[in-house]
């Protein structure tokens, strides 16, 4: 490995550290911040006394890893696979990852042509359960497609279930999507998603902290989620049980000051229980992409106002609606009785009754008036059951 503190030496040093230090290791991040990459690499290579904050046993493990690391070979392997290494300070580095402090990635391996920094500026995470329901998969795909159509980048973890549905939704809409993996980006995991992840690499970006060929572990999946949360403006959880890993993403988003968003499900569904707990804890409820964009987007990107259907009686003048409401449902009534109920004069009530008759709401029975059957049914439908 070439040494030195210049750009080339800094880059190779960070490549070496991705092989030595686990993702999210705050001790390693603190060493880099306090001593610099070159000094940390020198101590790991020299095998001297342990750096602060680790036991002798752990330090010995780090030294063993450093002794086996071949950063030049990792870069060559990555280049052959169409993968580049993006480090803090590079023009492509997304500055929002710096919010992670000492848990910030030492660098990211990136597969795909677009600029990660530019895409991350307008991105939203869509995450959730691996063993999702049909409802969850439908909502994830629909949300992702809607976000993509509005020019937003959909970020997820490439896993089965909600992640896969979100990626496919964005791709199906011809939009942009980023998969953040917990393994080397040249060896996609899960194996059943190789075709999907290769398609993402062709149309979008595949990103990871681990060097080429490295494998996923349970802890790496959990730590990967902090990158998803930091990279995006907000995290949408579609389905999640109480112990779902996607809740880790949501909580990381909360800590980072990002928007934390939940899609409700059936109250009886265990796969929505974690989402509902998030919502009770202050996350924002959404039902479609427009509502997500209203939260994470710029001023003026508002969701359309939600309202029920406009009924014919809604178009009546206020005084005419009061006269209509004053007619009893099952019998005739005199103009005087109707006027009293509508709080108007008898003459005004009669004038409005003739208007209502022309519209089919009332009929005349001698000197009295009665609602038509159509009006009775319409009133029941408009009032509902509440």
SSE diagram, text form:
Blueprint: H1 7-20, H2 26-35, H3 37-46, H4 56-68, H5 71-80, E1 83-86, E2 108-111, H6 116-120, E3 123-127, H7 134-149, E4 153-156, H8 162-172, E5 177-181, H9 194-203, E6 205-208, H10 218-231, E7 234-237, H11 246-255, E8 259-262, H12 273-280, E9 284-285, H13 289-296, H14 318-326, H15 335-342, H16 346-358, E10 362-365, E11 368-371, H17 373-383
Parallel strand pairs: 3-4, 3-7, 4-5, 5-6, 7-8, 8-9
Antiparallel strand pairs: 1-2, 2-6, 10-11
Helix pairs in contact: 1-4, 1-5, 2-3, 7-8, 7-13, 10-11, 14-15, 14-16, 15-16
Q: What's a concise summary of this model?
A:
The protein is an alpha/beta fold.
CATH class division of the largest domain: Alpha Beta
CATH topology-level fold name of the largest domain: Rossmann fold
What is the count of β-strands? 11
Taken in chain order, the helices and strands follow as HHHHHEEHEHEHEHEHEHEHEHHHHEEH
Structural domain tally: 3
Give the second-level CATH assignment, the architecture of the largest domain: 3-Layer(aba) Sandwich
Strand order of the largest sheet: 1-2-6-5-4-3-7-8-9
The poorly predicted ranges are: 1-5
Specify the helix fraction band. 40-55%
Number of helices: 17
Compute the CA-based radius of gyration: 31 Å
Question: What amount of the residues lies in strands?
Answer: 5-15%
Distance between the termini: 74 Å
Helix/sheet category: alpha/beta
Gross morphology? elongated
Mean pLDDT: 91
